[in-house]
Amino acid sequence: MAVSGGTSCLLAAANHKIPISSEVAISLPVRSQTVTLRQEYGRMTSRRIHLWLCVFNALLLTASCGQAADLAQGISQYEARHYSAAQKIFIEVEREQGPSIETDFYLGRLGLWFDDLAAALPRLERCARLAPQQAKIQNALGDGYGLAAQKANLFAKLGWAKRCLAAYERAVAIEPQNPAWRWSLIGYYTNAPCIAGGGMDKAYAQAELIRTLDPVGGRVAFATLYLADDRSASAFAEFDPILRDSPDDFLALYHVGRCAALSGQQIDRGITALRRCLVLTEPVTADGIPSFANVHYRLGNLLEKKGCHDEAKLEYARASLAHADFRPAKVALKN
């Protein structure tokens, strides 16, 4: 292959070890001008630098994309409720990239799921300091303080409980249209004593607000509160209108089974409803949406109440098989 005259001269100069620092002029046919060897060498060097910068940037971009893909993979595993797998990915991402709000948030949430308060709470508090206006972080922080209240001694419980409530209230103030944060307040008001700001009247007020934002979610909220108030008939009645119109509504059937499991009432109806769920299509995984693991677990609860302990253990095992990190089923299998 022929090479240009300019390139040939440069190769010759290199082969004869001409000192590049010299100002010796060599004629090169470049834009009909005569340039010095230093000028041409400078252009070659610039091209090489540009080429290496392009390569380096491409490598950085590839690495960055790989890191983003790892984080995305961790989030995907988390949202699919594969919590052990997600935790391993986030730990590896943090090891390679250092701490971030994203890894702190998810590792904090996973710490709570695995009942590891010592691992979870510092991460969630750090997130809240760095991103105080993110409602999901405030809500998760409230969960952390709630777990701390449960684990604390009698004298420390009230302080942790108040911090829990304050975090939940901040989440609602930031995103008042998100029912999920109001669900946290319902849980708090239902379980906390009056001295810590609890009260069923406050819980019912939140349920009413949830109903305006999400009618079906409102039914679930009221059914939950009716069960806490020992009004199981009212809890079951919340789902009757849905099932009259849509007998195979997965969510309504599941909650009939849940009402039966929590109240000990209408057990056979609950078993029938849950078994019907298992022949329907499982809903897409999302927060607040029950999966087959939930169905198997509640079915196990009901079979236990009927004294069918072997069948109940089989359902708990199926729940664990459907969701490897489903802690309630693991606890039930140990008992």
H/I helix tally:
17
C-alpha geometry: globular
String of helices and strands = HHHHHHHHHHHHHHHHH
Q: Roughly how many Å apart are the termini?
A: 81 Å
Describe it for me?
With 335 residues, the chain is mainly α. The protein has 17 helices and no strands. It has helices spanning 5-15, 37-79, 83-97, 101-113, 117-130, 135-151, 154-174, 179-191, 200-213, 215-228, 232-237, 240-245, 250-263, 267-277, 292-305, 309-322, 327-334. Helix 4 (101-113) packs antiparallel against helix 5 and helix 13 (250-263) runs antiparallel to helix 14 (267-277). The longest helix is centred in the N-terminal third of the chain and has 43 residues, at 37-79.
What attributes characterize this protein structure?
335 residues, mainly alpha, 74% helix, globular, disordered N terminus
How do you describe this structure in short?
This protein has 335 residues and is mostly helical. It contains 17 helices and no strands.
How are the secondary structure elements laid out?
Elements: H1 5-15, H2 37-79, H3 83-97, H4 101-113, H5 117-130, H6 135-151, H7 154-174, H8 179-191, H9 200-213, H10 215-228, H11 232-237, H12 240-245, H13 250-263, H14 267-277, H15 292-305, H16 309-322, H17 327-334
Helix pairs in contact: 2-3, 3-4, 4-5, 4-6, 5-6, 6-7, 7-8, 8-9, 8-10, 9-10, 10-13, 13-14, 13-15, 14-15, 15-16, 16-17
